[in-house]
Amino acid sequence: MLDAKRALAQRGLIIDGQQFQRILPHIPIEDDLSTCTSYDDLDADDPGDYRQPKRPHWANKVQFVLACIGYSVGLGNVWRFPYLCYKSGGGVFLVPYFLILIVCGVPLLYMELAIGQFTRRGPIGALGQICPLFKGAGLSSVVISFLMSTYHNVIIAYAVYYFFAAFKAYQPWSDCDNSWNSAACWLPRFTGLDNRIRPNTSRTPSEEFFDNKVLQISGGIEEPGALRWELVACLVTAWVMVYFSIWKSIKSSAQVRYLTATLPFLLIVVFLTRSLTLEGADRGLRYFFRPRWELLGDAKVWVNAAAQIFNSVGIAFGSMICFASYNKFHNNILVDTVAVSLINAFSSLLVGIFAFATIGNISLEQNMTVEAVLSDGPGLVFVVYPQALAKMPASQLWAVLFFFMLVCLSLNSQFAIVEVVVTSIQDGFPNWVKRHLLCHEILVLLICVVSFFFGLPNITQGGIYFFQLIDHYAASISIMFLAFFEVIAISWFYGVRRLCNNVKEMTGRVPSIYFRFCWLIASPLLIMAVWVFSLIDYEPPSYRNGLYIYPWWAEAIGWGIASLSLVCIPAFAIYVLIRAEGNTFSQKLRNSIKPHFEACTSCGQEYCTEPMHNIDEELLKEPLQEMNNIVHMNSNYLPPKNPV
């Protein structure tokens, strides 16, 4: 009796022999997980509901777009984009960059936003619901995000160190008269061209400040040395800023992003304008915009372009799925996709112009080539830029603004990286979090503390070598492999047709043939080709433009770091196959790729109520009779024309 009434309440009601279906409305459940008491409302007892756990929403569309832009327009645009452009021969890099953006970047961003918004889960839950066999791909993205969170915050620690150092009346990286400078320190003079020729063994003041003062760098990764306690304090400061920005989930981080995601754009425009007025800026711009077409046949150019697109846009890192899971159901994700992609590409161009105009000025001042000025790793940000800032009028002001911009850009990316880990743990273990950690704030604190301790090896005297190693293997090699399996899971196993139906259900429009072609054919083929070429043309990591070569055991550690994320995909697939229902392998495989939810056979929508013929009529007789009696007792009752 009770089960029948519950079935009627869920599926509809029958009055005088007429069936009225109850359509479940697309009304998002307003459940704020940002306070300790909010877990009392978690509906975690219903694991069959793929829309669980409940979610808060972005207060408005601007907050969501700022979150996506803040992640994509981050430190990678200021640091990695100019360096990869230099490694790829200058302007020719822009050709594969924009081609891969069109074929992979935009379609896959649209796909991730659609999956996140529809399932209302983080990467593990979203992929696990639409294709359980590839749930490990979601876990891999969380592992990569955790690894990135441990060393990405080190960049913020460097920026905080430089920010406070910039307040000194005389910039400490502007001359050779400091205790950390060596006899090789060289400062260009303006008495004549001959005096401006830089000796081969010399080092600029900014190089010596970064290596000898900030890092107190050792001879290699085999010499880890002691912790740099000044950097430890800066790293603590960075994690405190991250914690209090995201401890209330999207409510707190969205408010912070109004500053951190908008102010950097204004500062980039200011620095761009200033850099174009520098003497020699045209030398750097010619290198940036004059392509060497013969390099298009070099696989490294395409691999570098793909790595930049995936790192910048955030494909396969889980951040965009996580952000979209906080959207309202009917949000128009196509507008968000186009806006984020265009702003990201435009900002990369602006930063590229600013970077190469500055580098051109330095190359003229030191009578060097543009290629000789650039350096790998964080050196571009903390060596080349300070060198240019030191000789600007009001250098103190410019330096303070520049490093404040770096802090803002880095924080935006760090928010997204940490929120992926938090959201995934919260989705996967809601009852455990409620029972042991009590509230969201404690979970965020635990993750920040654990990430802080894992980041300590990066701020030893040999930490920069470890930083370069983990960045090479975690952010470049692993991400291509992961992106391929994510696309296969969604486009081929879950199906483009299902995905298009989901998008239509949310937005009212079916994705264009361009998106469908890229999802099904173009993107998987391009990702596979780039990944294969990256393995064929594999180059071991190095530091200082190849002057330091890592020992074999360091490379083994790097591959071990990459394997931490990659092994999740086959391991979880085997686990799911073993646990799947069925007596034969084919039955188990069929059940392991079946989504956890099925669309209505009549309308194709996931939220529509199924026909009532599946309910046992014998169970319904008594409750139906009661309902009909109640209706006939009230002669004024008229059933609604469109009951909901």
Q: How would you describe this structure in keywords?
A:
4 strands; mainly alpha; single chain; 644 residues; Amino acid/polyamine transporter I; globular; 64% helix; disordered C terminus
Word description of this protein:
The chain has 644 residues and is mainly alpha-helical. It has a single domain (36-579), classed as Amino acid/polyamine transporter I, CATH 1.20.1740.10. Helices cover 64% and strands 2% of the residues. It has 26 helices and 4 strands. The strands form 2 sheets. The protein has a two-stranded antiparallel sheet. Strands 3-4 form a two-stranded antiparallel ribbon. α7 (135-165) packs across α23 (552-566) and α13 crosses α22 (513-536). The protein is globular, with a radius of gyration of 28 Å.
Proportion in β-strands: under 5%
Strand/helix succession: HEEHHHHHHHHHHHHHHHHHHHHHEEHHHH
CATH homologous superfamily title: Amino acid/polyamine transporter I
User: Over the alpha carbons, how many angstroms does the gyration radius reach?
Assistant: 28 Å
Structurally, the number of domains stands at: 1
Label the overall shape: globular
Examine the secondary-structure arrangement and name the CATH architecture: Up-down Bundle
Helical stretch tally: 26
Pfam family, one: SNF
Main location: membrane
GO molecular function: amino acid:sodium symporter activity; metal ion binding
Keywords: Disulfide bond, Membrane, Metal-binding, Sodium, Symport, Transmembrane, Transmembrane helix, Transport
